[in-house]
Amino acid sequence: MYKEVSIGLGAAVLIFLVVIGYNVGPLIFLGVLGGFLYYLMRSRGVVKNFHKVPSEAQVQVSFCDVGGQATAIEELREALDFIKNRQEIRRLGIRPLKGILLTGPPGTGKTLLARAAANYTDAVFISASGSEFIEMYAGVGAQRVRKLFKTAREMAQKHKKDYALVFIDEIDVLGGKRGKTSSHLEYDQTLNQLLVEMDGIDVDDEVQILVVAATNRADMLDPALLRPGRFDRQVRVELPAKDGRLEIIRLHTRNKPLGKDVDLAELAADTFGFSGAHLESLANEAAILAMREGAKEISKAHFQEAIDKVIMGGKLDRRPSVEEMKRVAIHETGHALISELVRPGSVSTLTITPRGSALGYMRQTAEDDRYLHTQDYLESQIAVLLAGAVAEEMLLGSRSTGATSDIEQALQIAEQLIRSGMSELGFVSLESLPSDAKHKALNGILKRQEELVRRSLEAQKPGLEAIVRHLLQREKISGEEFRNLMASPAA
Ligand code: ATP
Questions:
Q1: Counting atoms of ligand 1 from 1, which one is nearest the CA of 215?
Q2: What digits encode the pLDDT tens for the residues 22-62?
Q3: What residues are labeled active site?
Q4: CA of 380: how far to CAs of 254, 332, 446, in Å?
Q5: Is 364 helix (H, G, I), strand (E, B) or coil?
């Protein structure tokens, strides 16, 4: 805004000077020179505009907008209440809390929490990402850190606020262990400057600064950052559990018209492993699908399709050949049949529509969030993974590369079985096992499951063939249809 007005005014003054006969040549020369110098400073990063969030935007994010993070919110709020109580802190001579570190997987709401924290403390919010500080030129990163804190103070003064919240995302990029970056000392200088700025925060400062940083890799951080007096409060922001997912889905569907068949609790159960960002994307994709179809409301089918899209990516135009489609249908039906056998009701969708990097897939419903796995459970997962390749071999006489990632996953689970002392080797360290013993143990686990799967599929061969024919005709069948077909394959 100011920029446009200044350009307009400048142009008007120039025209006026030309009209009254003034020689504007030297002025234009000076203007161009000034502009060039400013451009150089910006491109070298000396002048850097951090992401300032205007105070009106802050009002919109509060802790009520963050779902499924009750524990993180409670811990954060406790720390913020402490900061807000400035008089008491001063009276008791307590060192102010300077930094809060939010750690956890991507998309779980760390930025959202930081914004809500700024709102809660009535602070101005300024954010930057760790990668914005890293430059080729020595000293630029440190200069940017200084500027970030200076801007935060100025913004708070301008908006007449007592607090400023500086949010640094991906702090591991700038706060990694010092001395580890080989090329130059730029990283170290930048981190040192951040430490200097944080050490300089005092309870008597006119503007109280709170640094909130986020990372997915707390283990990478320099210990100096984590020592008391800096980021001495760590808040874990985990992937949401089922209730949390329900809360987040509710938040992101509150402004959307939902069909009568939509059951949000069922959706929450179906989205194990989804982060808040995934769930936001799910609600958005479902609404887009409804709009494309010209539907007035978002239905269950839209949400189901959106789950597939979020997990696997968009549908592909590329069509596999008829033989390939048949192979994919056999492979996926194999997975689905064993999945139903080991856990009845577990098939959610079965499709041979190519999506992302997959030619087809079988999605399982999550019963309940699991954090511990028994031997039976892990072995049954291996069986489901191997069933695709075994079904292909049974009906087509050969296997294909379609099973590559299934086998990799099955091997990982088998390793987990050995590591947790659930294999015939007893309690052993996988790392210290001789490679042939490890290979034999892994192979033994997979072979046993392969045999069980082969016997089960042989017993169900007519049903398997009938479902494959059905899937080839329809391209996608729901878990319910699949179970009906299993019960009466001839239908
Ligand atoms: P990253 O580590 O990748 O920076 P993040 O943890 O900071 O991710 P956000 O940027 O806060 O994640 O989340 C991205 C978007 O996902 C948010 O704008 C919001 O729409 C949605 N979201 C994520 N977590 C939640 C949550 N707990 N409640 C509601 N919405 C969420």
A1: 2
A2: 777 777 778 787 777 766 655 554 444 555 554 444 447 89
A3: 332
A4: 38, 16, 11
A5: strand
pLDDT number for residue 57: 44
Which residues pair with residue 125 across a beta bridge? 53, 165
The helix (run of H) or strand (run of E) holding residue 51 is: strand 51-53
Instruction: Give the whole-angstrom CA distance, residue 191 versus residue 197.
Output: 10
Cβ atoms 149, 197 nearer than 8 A: yes
Of 39, 47, 108, which Cα lies nearest the Cα of 72? 108
68 lines ligand 1 (CB under 6 A): yes
Calculate how far, in angstroms, residue 164's C-alpha sits from the geometric centre of ligand 1: 21
| pLDDT exceeds cutoff 70 at 195 | yes
Can you give the pTM of this predicted structure? Answer: 0.75
Average pLDDT score over residue span 435-462: 94
In whole angstroms, give the CA distance from residue 443 to residue 475: 34
**pLDDT for 55:** 45
Q: Map 141-182 to HEC letters.
A: HHHHHHHHHHHHHHHHHHCCCCEEEEEEECHHHHCECCCCCC
Asked whether 212 lines ligand 1 (CB < 6 A), one says no
Establish whether residue 112 lines the binding site of ligand 1, counting it when its CB lies within 6 angstroms of any ligand atom.
yes
User: Which residue, judged by its Cα, is nearest atom 3 of ligand 1?
Assistant: 106
Reported as a single tens digit per residue, the pLDDT across 61-120 is: 899 999 999 999 998 888 888 878 877 877 888 877 888 999 999 999 999 999 999 999
Check if 244 has its Cβ closer than 6 Å to any atom of ligand 1.
Answer: no
- C-alpha Rg value of the chain to the nearest Å: 30
Place of tokens 């930094």: 99
Cα 106 to ligand 1 centroid, rounded to whole Å: 8
* pLDDT over 90 (residue 369): no
- Enter the tokens of residue 434: 């001789």
Q: How far apart are CA 71 and CA 64, in angstroms?
A: 13
Instruction: List the residue whose alpha carbon is closest to atom 31 of ligand 1.
Output: 276
Beta strand spans in 3-46 (E): none
Residue 248 Cβ < 6 Å to ligand 1: yes
* 107 CA → ligand 1 middle, Å: 4
105 contacts 215 by C-beta, under 8 angstroms: no
Question: How many whole angstroms from 220 Cα to the centroid of ligand 1?
Answer: 22
